[in-house]
Amino acid sequence: MRCIFFVLVLLITGTSQTIAQDDQAFKLGTFEDNGIYVGLVLDDSLVVNLGIANDAVSGNKVDMPADMYGIIEHYDRIRARLGEIVAAVFEGDTQPSYVKALIEVKTLP
Q1: Which residues contact residue 98 at a Cβ distance below 8 angstroms, ignoring those fewer than 6 apart?
Q2: Which range of residues forms the domain containing residue 77?
């Protein structure tokens, strides 16, 4: 039994490290800035409006949920698209228009 537990811990830990190495870490939340939207927080300082970013970023666009409940429910379906959006934020030399400083928007519960 202890051996099985140890193997499970190793598998879970190894998977977490792989994901962390491949992806930029982000948080999700609801924000208000000329309307309410679901956003992605990068580096604890930038907020990406997911609805606008999904339309603006090239790649496989998805039907982006409009609230956190939808994000949670459909996370497996939209996860790859979130990664594309994050990558696009860091590609250019200028900040895209769908990105705001966290201090410029209101964080909602």
Answers
A1: 48, 49, 52, 53, 56
A2: 24-108
